[in-house]
Amino acid sequence: MLKSHHNHKRRKSISVLCTSKVVAATSLLIALTAGGAFAQVLPTAQGNHPLVKIGLQTETATILTLQKAIDLALGGNLDLAVARREIEATQGPVIQGQARPNPELVYSLEDQRAATRTQSVQINLPIEVGGKRAARIAAAERGRDIAVEELNLRRVEIYAAVVATFFEALAAQERVALTEAGVDLAKRATDAVAKRVAAGKVSPVEETKARVVEAGVQVELAQAQSEQRNARARLASLLGANPPRFALVSGSVDELPAVPSFDNVQQRLLASPTLRRAQLEIERRRSLVDVERTKRIPDITFSLGVKRPNELQRDQLLFGVSVPLPLFDRNQGNLLEALKREDKARDEIQALSARLSTDVLQARERLEYIRGEVDVLQRDVLPGAKSAYDAATVGFENGKFNFLEVLDAQRTYFAAKFQYLKALAEAHRAAADIDRVLGETSASVTQPVNKE
Description:
This protein has helices spanning 2-37, 50-57, 66-76, 78-98, 132-198, 204-237, 262-270, 273-294, 332-397, 403-438; strands at 62-65, 104-110, 118-127, 246-250, 255-257, 300-309, 316-322, 446-448. By secondary structure, it is α+β, with helices and mostly antiparallel strands. The model is unreliable at 1-60 and 442-452 (pLDDT under 50).
């Protein structure tokens, strides 16, 4: 009896000791996960990131940087290929505008009887007067200039789209990494609670709650992975007809673009590619007006030939000059249309200037607001959430809090971190919108965010 009672007490002590070790190990894992989950994935910890391991196992997968993405997009984007084809096509009107009117060969036969038959051969040579050819060439060259500016505009738009989409993909990648850490933590906490339930320390209801929380985190992970796939697909669509497979986007999402001053915005706006294109359209319309105005002056046609009447049995020289008389058609309708379209182009550039000014100022205001939001998150929200999470972890280790309270503090911290990543992505999108309007195609000046 005494030996059996002693063995029972010994088994009970071992059971309590094992349970205590499980709790301590779980607490240690929570602390380690909390410390590692929020470390910057890129570029210092690329080798340890799970996505890098996946990429290393895929032969064709690569790590995509922002500069590489921009180079690929500017080199192989289909919209740019279309714009280049348009430039090639506009060379045709320039060549055609330089061409002069073709001469005309005329042969005539009078009378069918050989004795009285008269044959004549002559060449009619039209001569353009009034500067028609020069005006036609100028209009064609303005069309070519517009096509070149259209290519520049497309380059700026694609640059801005690549920058914005790249940072969206980078933020989505960070969110997946955070959510994976949360899933791992939830699984470990669920296992720890299951062992405590088996040991009779807590109610089975606690295990049910733990599994519900774990399922919720799994749903968040699936959503984060879906957003990451969508962001990567949007980025890949900008890289050209055959975009490379990439397992990881490499960059620093924490670097915030600087907010340009109002004076800088106004100066750059005047030289923006969109306004330059509109100004070239006005010049082209003015050239078309000149073309229609020159058409009011009739061309002269000189005729030179030989006439041979069989009755005379000798050749006779033919020479003539013809000039149309502009009595009824003075090209007044086409000239009026060209003048009105020039006026329309002038009105359009004024409306466009006002709209671009509004767009860029709104984007600047959005960027300034987001920088303030990021500053608040970095200065107040994230440290507070991290402090609450650390306190819950310590309380759990000391038995003052249950694991659900730790998970709730962890999810609060994750939510703040997600909001922080979203704000960073929005800041880069606002900066890209500014560059798209103002025509900046160099890397924006960035300012790193202070780390915790």
